[in-house]
Specification:
about 120 residues; 3 helices; mainly alpha; single chain; two-stranded antiparallel sheet
Length: about 120
């Protein structure tokens, strides 16, 4: 009886591990799509031109928000347009916020794309 219970619990554990793994794979794929769109389409001087695409993507992926922050800490784009939009995360009013604390972890450039732009991605903790 103990062996049967252990076998069932092991099977449930393996199913849950596969489900969680699939969820993280889906999330990573969504982040890559966002990264591609931002790198290819977002003009930092005119972020509104990409707003429709990015808000639709944000909704379809089920993200809380999509933030684009320049290397100087300026929030140049956010799909949700909350209070931190167009503020500086280093010197502005949200310099002590959770997003500002996360910013240095994601601000190191990953690699330049063909347009010479950098993109780094962090998950919120």
């Amino acid at each position: 009886m103990f062996a049967q219970a252990e076998a069932k619990l092991t099977a449930v554990r393996e199913i849950k591990q596969r489900q969680i793994s699939a969820m993280f794979d889906d999330f990573a794929s969504g982040l890559q799509v966002v990264r591609s769109v931002v790198s290819a389409q977002l003009d930092p001087k005119q972020p509104e031109n990409s707003h429709q695409v990015l808000t639709a993507l944000n909704k379809n992926l089920g993200f809380y928000d999509i933030f684009v922050i320049d290397p100087q800490g300026q929030v140049i784009y956010t799909a949700a347009r909350e209070a931190d939009y167009q503020t500086n995360l280093i010197h502005g009013p949200y310099a002590t916020s959770g997003l500002a604390k996360l910013f240095p972890k994601g601000s190191a450039p990953v690699r330049a794309n063909s347009a010479g732009r950098f993109c780094a991605i962090c998950t919120f903790q």
